[in-house]
Amino acid sequence: METSESPASVGPVLRARGLEKRYGDGEGLVQALDSVDLDVARGESLAVMGPSGCGKSTLLHLLGGLERPSEGEVWLAGRRVDRLSEKALARLRRRAIGFVFQAFHLMDELTALENVELPALLAGSSPRAARQRATELLGQVGLTDRADHLPAALSGGQRQRVAIARALSNEPLVLLADEPTGNLDTAATLDVLRVLDSLRAAGQTLVIVTHESRVAATADRLISMRDGGFVEETRLTRGTHGRLGELAGLES
Amino acid sequence: MGRALLVVRLAARDLRRRPAETALLLLAIMAATTTLTLGLVLQGVTDKPFQSTREATAGPDVIAALFPRSDGTVDPAQVKAVTGEPGVVAHSGPYPVAGAVLEAGDRTVVAQIEGRDTAVASVDQPKPTRGGWLRPGGVVLEAAFAEALDIGPGDRVTLSPIEETAPGSEPSLQASGAGREFRVDGVAVTAATPPYPEPACLVNLCQGGADTGVLWLGRADALSLYPRRDSFIYVWNLKLADPARAPAFAAEHNPPADLPEGARSSGPPPPFLEPWQVIRDASANLVDNQRRALLTGAWLLAFLAVASVAVLVGGRMADQLRRVGLLKAVGGTPGLIAAVLLAEYVAVALLAAAAGLVVGSLTAPLITEPSAGLLGSAGAQTVTLSSAGVVTAVALAVAVVATVVPAVRAARTSTVLALADAARPPRRTAWLVALSARLPVPLLLGLRVAARRPRRTLLALVSIALTVSGVVAALAAHADLPNGSGSARADRLDEVLLVITITLVAMAAVNAIFVTWATALDARRSSALERALGATPLQIGAGLSAAQVLPALAGALLGIPGGLELIAMADPDSSSPSPPLWQLLAVVPATVIVVAVLSAVPARIGARQPAGRVLQSELA
Fold it and tell me: Which of chain B's residues have a Cβ under 8 Å away from the Cβ of A93?
């Protein structure tokens, strides 16, 4: 289905048209994504909900250039990206996209600080600048005192906050989060939601894939997916108190 | 019994499930066992032909060289002191011996000529193997020397006196006068010198360097080559009542080695005596050198096989973790799990030992092909019980050393973790992480990949260090060979060195590919994550290659002193040979380039795995 116009005054920072993704062939053909059109405005927070296997993660991977679509187009900041070479896609991810995964995907042998500075180092920042930025980001997610801890010594919520800090290392245009609270308990979920809320408030463009309605309720807009396609779109008011945690019913 | 059957059945099925890996394991261990077998069966391989030759030629127990006085005669007192000794039961001689330039067709070599009688001597009568013994105007060549020169009865050769050279300088191939042509009457074997291509010189007095061979001609013909009688030395062949006493007899009469220069008399040098045992050992010199090279190579290959098997097993264990979990879930004890995993590799090792013993025994005659200079053959290359035991023990040691750590680790993994197929957590090396942050992205990634699995990195380093050690030792041995390439003796040993070097390099190449592939598999998740964070496939591939090149660089640098130490240990008699400097300098960049090229393909494949799917499957 066609999505509505972006609420933002500027044009969409992320756009998809006729996006399809198929795996396998013949009788084993799986249509993971089917004719999806999407616009995400700069500064917008978008939640994508749906049952397991409906194509949410595939959509996120296509938007972030981790996979290539079978059909359709993906545009980022006015530039078509689905036809870029692997090298160009890598550069794009480095500069314009931040990923947050359900399984955190932190480097087990690196401390929290070293994990967060890694994207900056990959982007060619000086070790000093990368370290300084990583320290700031860990402060933003409230983990300054855990900077030198290995992932194994962190709780689930702390790990995900480190992953969010890492995703912000190169100041991406868009942050793509795949079930960011999927592996977390209620308290840790609240911690992560607070961080996401502060990002939204700071104008960070967010696309959050989730199957949890409380997380989805924190977004500006909610899209529901089923069988590889969009089935419903809802614009959210973000609560009466303007506090994301309260809206999500996670704190009193 | 039932438990043992279960272990065997499980091990056999797993081996059949992965035929390619099993074949590679077999080949890796077999390279070591075959080389070791060859080295072991060459022990004493020339003793039998030498004894046959000694019996057939009435070989001397001691050969005595006496030096003439200025008038060309030998001091009778010196002769009596040697031939008249109690214990000497027979002797022949004196025979004049000198060097000469031999021209045969387009070949010009230095020969040691011995003036002999046409009559049969009671001691050291060379036995013709083709043609006959001397006739007036003819010559007879030592059989292996004749074979190397492709000369036979009926051919003609030209002999000329050797031009005098300054003492201590290289012998000259320059003839000092017009040569005389001789007819070749025959070729013969003798036990008075080692056969060509060993320096085949009577009483070890070679005038022509390493490639000298012996030639007999009539006494008058020999004396006619040089106008001065003191150009010759004179040789007596002695038979002792007790041949075993020959070394002691020679030692009693030879001048002490540490005799000060001033203590020598102004007359001719004292006699020099050589016992038959020295000639026997020198006859085996070539094979002994080959044997030393083979045994050294075998140990290097055994260590390389450990590295190959360890990397393969490590990779397989990661893959087998889920299977381990299933076995444990249905009641398998850690002991049973370890037994199944060990049984697989022990079975391969036993098969490799058997195959190595057979192939080594069958290949040995190619190396020991009896010299034409000795009678009979070395006989069938039989593997003794002790040799078979050593080869089997080495094969089993390779398998057990390489397998025991991952097998025990897998057996001790918790069932839940094993069923979840959880990857073994990587190691953290803080200083390397900090250091790598200051490096370009490929080196940053490479150093961190290498640091994640220090044991595998160490194996890669050791593998390269051993290979480079072997190559440097082979280059040093080659450089130490007399006359360098082109010498028949050098060529024979060079062939063995070349085969060992090629095998070492091939094993190291296979190791480099194994290690890179295992690293790429192990780093799938981190590589996918780094790609999600913006690293290009080229950077990831270069990082995986750098993870191999960095230990290869360290290995190559360690391999150079290692190789020089190796050659010193393998050949303690040599004076610390070393390859030319340019070869040593070329070894390091050549190693790095070869490893970079070998690791490029598996690294590139590993770097191009779809990042999204890898990260998604990790989640699943």
Answer: 531-534
